[in-house]
Amino acid sequence: MKFTPRPGILDIEPYIPGASKGGSGKVIKLSSNENPLGPSPEAVKAYKDTAEKIFRYPDGGSVELREALAKKHNMDAGRIVCGTGSDELISLLCRAYCGEGDEVLYTEHGFLMYPIAALSAGATPVKAAEPERKTDLNALLSAVTDKTKMVFIANPNNPTGALVQKDALLAFHAKLRSDIILVIDSAYAEYVEEENFTDGRDMVDQFDNVVMLRTFSKIYGLGGMRVGWSYSSKEIADILNRIRGIFNLSIATQAAALAALFDDEYIEQSFRNNSEQKKWITSRLEDMGIHVYPGEGNFILFTLGTKEKAIACLNFMKERGILLRGMMAYGLPDCLRMTIGLPEDMQAVDEAMKEFFA
Ligand SMILES: Cc1ncc(COP(=O)(O)O)c(C=O)c1O
């Protein structure tokens, strides 16, 4: 018997995560935009403390965590929905609002989860061009059709690091039809240094067609726990709550996220390390004649000029235990993306890259 999945499912390219093995010695994993400091010590302690409680079902509404998020960000907890990573929320948004005949718009080099979620829901993903590898809001507006239901903008974008300034985002929203949901994916918001920036929360407060997504996988160092959250109108939050897993966040996940949220020292240290090391390695690579795309976030995107050179560089680094991310799946075959690591990681990258170009 052959079982046929719904239309669209077989069009999904399986997602290939960042490499985690390479070389024979120590591995420096810079392929998945994780926090190089490791997890927050407070989160680890809270996680371990849940061990005796895991026979219980978790709080299905993640109430304590949502209330803590609401307090920290001055929001209404009833408009926050927690998900198993923001990945789950991207899927839920598509499942709830997009189906056959609907279009989901995103940028040419946008996060791969957007087309996966759109196709899973039976909708059609549509890419808007990103000339110069920057988010082009006019191209996005031109790509809007009668069928457009949802627009995803990652700000800053992964993998380009491109940032849309607050004024431009507001002007874009003003031109967008009010029956289209604008999802502002602010996974890397905590790392942003640009002042003319919004993570989208003020827009959610003003407009009922804006949703902001956040994650604990980046600066909060909890990629392995799978926890993200959305902030939206009460109406959209209610819809997401109807279709999410009823106990989606485990006891350990909720406890670890709650502890990480208030570990200010760890967050500050993570921000500082990223800011300093990003500047340092960018200037070292530029000194080698490499073009690094200007961008925000805990990673950089740089071009090696050709696909062949990018593959050669990726493999050369891998042999030395340094794992970078190839960008073929993102339509950037000449580029590599590198997560910003600790000072010793960045020194190892500097030395290996010099060797590559020697
Ligand atoms: C732009 C963007 N959005 C969302 C995510 C997913 O994050 P999470 O781990 O919360 O699912 C990522 C992960 O890399 C990302 O780069």
TrEMBL record:
TM region(s), chain numbering: none
**Protein's pathway:** Amino-acid biosynthesis; L-histidine biosynthesis; L-histidine from 5-phospho-alpha-D-ribose 1-diphosphate: step 7/9
For this protein, the Enzyme Commission number is 2.6.1.9
CDD domains from the entry? AAT_like
| InterPro entries attached to this UniProt entry | Aminotransferase_I/II_large, HisP_aminotrans, HistidinolP_aminotransfase, PyrdxlP-dep_Trfase, PyrdxlP-dep_Trfase_major, PyrdxlP-dep_Trfase_small
GO biological process terms, semicolon-separated? L-histidine biosynthetic process
Q: Where on the chain is N6-(pyridoxal phosphate)lysine found, per UniProt?
A: 218
Which Pfam families would you find in this protein's record?
Aminotran_1_2
Please name the GO terms that the record assigns under molecular function: histidinol-phosphate transaminase activity; pyridoxal phosphate binding
- What are its cofactors? pyridoxal 5'-phosphate
> Taking every annotated instance into account, which residue ranges of this chain make up the domain Aminotransferase class I/classII large?
26-345
Which keywords label this protein?
Amino-acid biosynthesis, Aminotransferase, Histidine biosynthesis, Pyridoxal phosphate, Transferase
**Which family does the similarity line name?**
Belongs to the class-II pyridoxal-phosphate-dependent aminotransferase family. Histidinol-phosphate aminotransferase subfamily.
Q: How does it assemble?
A: Homodimer.
Stated name of the protein = Histidinol-phosphate aminotransferase
